[in-house]
Batch of 3 targets.
Target 1
Amino acid sequence: MNPGLTDVPETMLWTLHNRASEAARSDGVLRDPEALRIYQAIDYDYELRFGPADPSHAIRSAMFDHAIRGFLAEHPSAVVVNLGEGLETQRYRVTEPDTLWISVDLPEAIAARERFIPADDQHHHVGLSFLDRAWFDEVPRDRPTFLTAQGLFMYFDEADIRSLMVDMAARFPGGELMFDPLPRWLSRKTTSPKGWQKTPHYTTPPMPWGINRNEIEPTLRSWVPTLREVEVLSWWRFPRGFANRWVLPLMEKVPIINRHAPCVVRLSFS
């Protein structure tokens, strides 16, 4: 099966490449047999396009899994809304019989997802842009809500994300949102004339929204002054790979560099 994906939807294959390759390792950070199944079923030259796999996206998924497990331990009948989920297989790694999962993605991404991951009574698929507020109507109003956006917000303009966050704060009071921002230096690289060329055969789509770590909390609170909590989480360290073993620990230790380090944000709406 060839997915025929381009532009931002094609990035779901990039993240799948890294997650599945990590899951195949005995020392991997993620156990994910479903990702491996999908990875092997798709006729696609992952290494030609994206280069050798690295653990980055698996670490990110593990961080999101950890947060959602904690939320569901307190709210087992909650709703988990995954925006721009692509071929993420989190629903198989995090299980709770009373939780409702809603995946919101572009119609072509949902079509690719449903070739491998079926919707059912507990797992709903909504074929809409996450910027189309119509998906709000698919979320029950009487249940706690945890929203995620893995590798998504950076592909859009800051004004769009700000507007969405204001609307989500009004629609999901008491809910939580988790996302991974992109530092400004990397955003600038993707929007430069040459772009971010991962390999000679693949240049990432532009990622116009970048924000440095030290700017995150004041910026989000200026957008939504009623936020209950803003938590900026350091990327989990993993003792394999040059970046995870040496670069990230160095960035964490040096204050002037720390602001440019990758991170994950978890916030609570009041």
Target 2
Amino acid sequence: MIDWPLESDLERSAAAALAARERIRPFARETPLLEAAPGLFLKLESLQRTGSFKVRGAASALTAGRSAGAQAVVAASTGNHGLAVAAVAAALGMSCRVFVPSSASGFKLHRLRGAGVELVEVAGDPLRAELAAREEAAASGALFVSPYNDPLVVLGQASVGLELLEQLDEEPGALFVAVGGGGLVSGIALAIRARWPRCRIVGCVPAASPAMADAVAAGGRAVPSRLEDTLSDATAGNIEEGAITVAICAALVDDWAVIAEREIAAAMRAALLEHHVAIEGASGLALAAALRDSGEGRPRVAVLGGANVGATALEAVLHV
């Protein structure tokens, strides 16, 4: 059990992240770092197994749970986390149920159904699906794997940061990461902060759903936040009360970039037409923020967290 405040003991967290990285090697690939333009690097988690970085955290939590005797898993997801949990659960011989909000992307729901998992649709905000999944896991005795509010999940995502430390020859000036519940940016920050103390970590949120930026602004506690339709469906929704990621983000994320829908669409279009990379809206957040930033002559990195985007969404952004 990992129960210490991760952000207050970076040395211990780094050791735990390294251990998680070894556990997830059979399930998550090391993704390439592309220099898309002079000084602009793209970490292509869009090429990760299941189409997003989420497989890292899912593998970290499920391998630990399976070793402890768990035979069934329950998760909540808008798509990417559910796909990741389903793939790892199948590999480990575990049954899997995924609670999804009714607002989830039709493309991602189609992929989840294709993965053969049992889907439970919940009306309302993605947070409602999270809470319903927790209740189901508690009642059934199944392992619950949160998309972000779980130290093992955060440490699995930290492997992205560990790879960046190996792939870049110099400390970048800024690192841009899309933020929903904060699992990815928390893990990366834990992995890199001690080695790259001058790197500015920028959390990127959609203006339509800036939950983590609002939580940090509120003094490090989850608060009700605006929730409107957004291309960045993977980061949309409110945050579970008491989530460990809020404290980590408050301690280790330096700046927040709030991205408009037109900027997300423009970044998705640029990724496809200029860099030949298909990305979903959440990845567009990080790229849009990086394109805004000059970097002051130092390298900057955008983490492109996923590529689970349907043809309809891609066609729409290409014709904006």
Target 3
Amino acid sequence: MFDYFQWGALISGILYVVLAARQSVWCWLWGAISTVLSGISFYQSKLYSDTLLQIYYLAAACYGYWTWSRKSPAGNMLKVQSFRLQNHLLLIALALGISFLLGRFWQQFGASLPYVDAFLAALSIIATWMTTRKILENWLYWILIDLAYVAMYFHKELFIFVILYAVYAGIAIHGFLKWRGSKNLA
């Protein structure tokens, strides 16, 4: 059966990640379109954390557009920057705590893979925020997150999303290399 929502999410999602790797502010428009289409599919598949994640992504797309398109008082655009190890350890601990609570919550509603879904959603929230702030390591998070989503969506037989997240992982590698070599690295 042809699923318009999944195919639309695939096309707009790929456009989002490609444009993000190029640091184009227009990535956020395509990200917003992809989130709406993905959210419908995830809700139908009872992946509730992923469904809620799409609402966050929609808000993040608005915030990302705003941060990437505005200039600082000095007239500069947002530059790529890097985080220290302790920042990453704190963010991962936060993701673990959120995923435990969220997984327990969704388990009561018959969610599919509640803890895995919640952990990947929590990490995705963090990685998206890092993307909006042009933190270089967001791409490393995305590589791991995308590969884990490939396994989860394969298990759920959401094969179009398997393809999408495999492509995302490849583009994330490209994005990391491109941002790392960026001339505007702070």
